[in-house]
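haha ok so turns out i had the wrong file open the whole time. this is the CORRECT one, sorry everyone. sequence first:
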Amino acid sequence: MNVVDVFDESCGFHTRITVCKENADMVNLTVASDCEAATRWGQTIKQVDWRQCLGKKFPQSLLWQSAMKILRHRSCPLPMTTLRAIEAEVGATRPADIRIHFLPSEEPDKRNAPKEVQ
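then structure:
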């Protein structure tokens, strides 16, 4: 079993995703979240064929299609995080933290900036 905690500071919601391999083809998923949309999404993906989720046609998988219909933001980290947790559960990667860190904005150096096209 792999458990992943996600906290997205932009929306302020905390989500816990649990993935447990059921057999050679299927994984069971639990999504517990403060976000109502994430909770609804979790209800649609309680059991998925991990090969479809991780294969070449993953955009057609139930996991991805339901995420695009239910989750409010296309950049929501939950689908990607769930895929990574599935990979860890089936042995395709090791469980490891992922960090996205926004750097402070800086005024661009005008000396090295490309010239404007007129």
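The first helix runs from residue 36 to 44.
again sry for the mixup
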